[in-house]
Design goal:
The chain is mainly α. It folds into two domains: 1-35; 39-262, Orthogonal Bundle (Cytochrome Bc1 Complex, Chain D, domain 2), CATH 1.10.760. It has ten helices and seven strands. Helix 2 packs across helix 5 (121-134), helix 3 packs across helix 5 (121-134) and helix 6 packs across helix 10. The longest helix is centred in the first third of the chain and has 33 residues, at 2-34.
């Protein structure tokens, strides 16, 4: 019996070592690619799109108010989602860009929201979010909770995060509610902690090596709903924005590393 316990102990130690080796290997792989993160290409394109007159109104986005005043980009990303009085809504970066594209440039925001990811103006939005987020790289998250609307969205996002349903009885918290969880070789950040939310929420948008594309938070959440076997949420819907508020507020004080590099 003693020898059996020793053998089981040895196996557990080996499994733990293998897991650590795999995680370390992935971290080293990301570090090697970080200096040449392809997200930089999206950032450069996004800066061009921000300054370029486009749409039916032939206007740029340089007067877009992302929360810190018209045209102010630096620092805006780490204070989103937030409440905007002109729309009467709490908005994340992507939904706010839709508003600016419609009001300033004359685009049809509803039509863009219905466009599949990776097509049409959706590709331009992902470039724009790469540019905007890159201007706050290294800054600390400080998502506001000063208004009743923002506090309500935080509570709604928290409930959605822990809500279990679907054929697998999954919630966001099933994968991201505890420390030390993994899927295959992928470490899963605990999004209920500042450190975990900073590493998770604070890394998107990100370039995904597996798809060769840059994904924003809206696309990331869409894929999470798919894996839970939930219906797809509407693009820039209140549900997705509420989740962003919950994660962003939880990440308070963590540094933004977006746009990051993902597997």
């Amino acid at each position: 019996m003693k020898s059996l316990l020793v053998a089981w102990g040895a196996l557990l130690v080996m499994a733990h070592a293998a897991a650590q080796t795999s995680s370390d290997g992935i971290a080293q792989y990301r570090a090697m690619l970080a200096d040449g993160n392809p997200a930089e290409l999206w950032e450069a394109k996004g800066e061009e799109l921000w300054k370029q007159p486009r749409g039916p109104k032939k206007a740029s986005l340089q007067q877009c108010d992302l929360g810190l005043g018209a045209g102010v980009v630096k620092g805006a990303f780490v204070e989103l989602p937030r409440y905007f009085s002109d729309t009467g809504r709490v908005q994340d970066l992507e939904s706010r860009l839709l508003t600016c594209m419609q009001t300033l440039q004359g685009f049809d925001a509803a039509a863009i929201a219905k466009t599949p990811f990776g097509h049409g103006e959706q590709t331009n939005i992902e470039s724009l979010i790469a540019y905007v987020s890159g201007q706050s790289r290294g800054m600390k998250f400080n998502v506001p909770q000063s208004s009743a609307a923002e506090r309500t969205m935080f509570e709604a996002g928290k409930r959605i995060f822990f809500f279990r349903a679907g054929p697998y009885d999954f919630a966001c918290a099933s994968c991201h509610g505890q420390q030390g969880k993994r899927i295959r070789l992928q470490d899963l950040p605990d999004l209920t902690t500042a450190k975990g939310a900073g590493a998770g929420f604070g890394a998107w948008p990100a370039y995904r090596v597996s798809s060769g594309e840059l994904w924003g938070m809206q696309r990331r959440l869409n894929d999470c709903f798919r894996q839970q076997r939930f219906p797809y949420p509407g693009y820039a819907s209140d549900a997705t924005v509420a989740l962003g508020v919950y994660m962003g507020v939880t990440a308070h004080g963590a540094e933004s590393i977006a746009p990051a590099l993902k597997r």
